[in-house]
Amino acid sequence: MNTDNPLIKRFNQRLSEIPEPGGGQCHVALLGVANVGVMAGVAPEIIFDEIRQSIPPGRRKVSDREIQEAINRALQDTGKQSRTFKKKSEPVVKDGKEALKRILEKSVSCDEADLWDASPYRLSWEPSIEDAIHFLKTFFHSDDLVFIGDRTEPGIPGTNIRTVADWISFFKYGGTAGPFFIINPLDGIPRLKNTYQGETYRGDQNIKVFRHALIEFDDLSHDDQIRFWMAINLPVRALIDTGGKSIHGLIDVSPLEIRTADDWNRHIKQRLYDERLVPLGVDRACKNPARLSRLPGVIRQESGKMQRLLWLSPTGRRCMNV
After folding, report:
1. Contact 259/210 with Cβ under 8 angstroms?
2. Structure confidence by residue, pLDDT tens digits, 45-58
3. What's the predicted TM-score (pTM) here?
4. Domains of the chain: residue spans and CATH
5. Hey, which of 10, 78, 202, 251 has its CA 20 to 30 A from 317?
6. Cβ atoms of residues 309 and 296 within 8 Å
């Protein structure tokens, strides 16, 4: 989609102008936004998501059906076939708190030393930049393009987007970077941002291979996070202490053979996160394939603590063999 397309700019403008529901103008505005989105060539599912996120609080609730009907009317008015939108999936895990409690109860009493001892890849060095070097060569392929940098940095090939082999050499010779990395390899091609405003090298649409997903708890104690990972049957590749209050769990999703964003949304976002992990208390913001994680071997500025490898495996496997 052309970023200079005036219809895209008009679509974004209309989204920002949606009035509060309950004042009599919101329904008409939805039809207008949907019409512009369809004329601009935006996919109906994206139009739906953009409208849903742009509706301000008001005196009435706008239902999914109302948005869907507005989009279908716009499709029909432009001679395109209307769509049947899938109903939002129901969680497989019905009582997340109780399910999490049962998982934690399965875990034996354990601490970081137990995780370290159970790591298939022996972490036989003191926490340092060696964490980053060993992690990169184990977690990625040598020719994978990986972003390493700050949260707000634009992706720049050759600077903060390099092959793993280049990054390892960079760190071995004293280079510093971080504190974040993107969990999946990039394609090195500039692509349209999700906002349709400009291009990026490090967005979800830049993912070349969908291999990994990130799991993080925001409200679970550090000890209980360790217990969770020692008990849960998931194909774990790495556990990283973020230097804060949480542990980042990186799991292997490559057996699912995800090829497209639609595959990711169906298998990872919906079936893994929405139906199973989010009810357990996992951070719902971790669903995207270009998610940032904390690079081990780097100091976290906010806390002054090292981001450390706790567990590492060349293949996805559960942390504790039973």
Report:
1. yes
2. 888 888 987 888 88
3. 0.76
4. 6-79 (no CATH), 96-317 (3.90.920)
5. 202
6. yes
